[in-house]
Amino acid sequence: MSVRDMVEKDYYAALGVPKDASAADIKKAYRKLARELHPDKNPGDAKAEARFKEVSEAYDVLSDENRRREYDEARALFAAGGRSGSFGGGRPGGGYGGGFGPTGGFGAPGAGYGNGNGQNLNFEDLLGNSGGGLGGFFDMFQRSSSPGRGPRRGGDIEAEITISFEKSLTGLEASVRLPGAATCTTCEGSGARPGTAPRTCATCRGLGVVSRAQGGFALSEPCRDCLGKGTMIDHPCPDCRGTGRREREQRIRIPPGVSDGQRLRVRGRGTPGERGGPGGDLEVTVHVQRHPIFDREGSNLMVTLPVTITEAALGASVRVPTLDGAPLTVKVPAGTSSGRRLRARGRGVPTAGGGHGDLIVTLEVVVPKPSSLSARARTALLEFAQAHPEDPRAAMMDQMETGE
């Protein structure tokens, strides 16, 4: 990243978060935008691709605590540059006036760097005597503008997988497709069409960085022609489109009891690192399909069991379906009302500690439809009503009348 980029690019605005956003908020905003702007979801959309790169660059800086702090310090320092008395000027007794210019230079053209006695100072000496302040600040620029130096960690990759409700309880090994996560076998990672090869960038002569004069000193920044790679590809590989990487499949282990929307992180299985750097991480979002009978609350399995009026009134032993084999028999107490819950301990979702949650059975009293009643059944119900005259609303009406 160049000095100009560091000053002029507002990474917080790119992600749509305030400057005091937490790391969790920054990550959440990035994930949302990355899903919306990913090239796989916007094929051929140049604006979406450019925005995706902008969001990725912003997250790359703001997700790293040290880089974010340096970025904030850099922008704060440049923002304060228009005020007098901060740096440069070279007037006797004037201190360091003039400040940072709006384009990233120091002071006005031709202005010296005064020491308060009318003498100009060597700029390198000034940085060297800063005690880690400005010196560290410009060291950071030098590091960030030299992409060819040292190992670099690979980027993280996000993927999604959908599994059945049953498999979410038992766990499984599954394959997920990872875009751009493996070296292209067609071009062997060069990015160039077979039979051709990348050529050395004439602008930076293969260094990946160029230097430019700014206010009496030189700054290095990534070469804009080769984007800091040091090479140019005239004939891109048709399979990877010049990236040198292609989609691959990764086998992962999904543990028993995984919940819908849960994210699994696999260390080192993301994009390979560069120049010997470690690989990034793989984050897989698991989507669990709904089951037609069962539901889930935490580690408990939930099922609604229909029972007849007779079973609810007189009590009965009824069978409950299960996901792990033979049906389970439960006892319905006599006088059961609709909505009552029964609990079968240890027949629920596997937990991290090796145990299981419970199976919660909610009883639902089923009232027969009039069209399904035979003449005999209708007569029996009328006889029951005469034999057991009961008004279930009597207590409610009495309370309303007495106001108690």
Would you summarize the structure shown here?
With 404 residues, the chain is α+β, with helices and mostly antiparallel strands.
Number of domains: 3
Low-confidence stretches: 81-148
Helix content: 25-40%
Whole-number mean pLDDT: 77
How far do the termini sit from each other? Answer: 76 Å
Question: Number of helical segments?
Answer: 11
Biggest sheet descriptor = 4 strands, mixed
Keywords summarizing the entry:
404 residues; alpha+beta; Helix Hairpins; HSP40/DNAj peptide-binding domain; 3-stranded mixed β-sheet; 27% helix
Describe the fold and architecture.
This protein has 404 residues and is of the alpha+beta class. The chain has helices spanning 3-8, 11-15, 23-37, 46-62, 65-79, 123-128, 134-144, 165-170, 309-314, 375-387, 394-402, and strands spanning 157-163, 172-183, 199-200, 209-214, 217-222, 231-232, 245-254, 263-266, 282-288, 294-297, 300-308, 316-320, 328-332, 341-344, 359-366. It contains eleven helices and 15 strands. The strands form six sheets. Strands 10-11-15-14 form a four-stranded mixed sheet. It starts with a helix and ends with a helix.
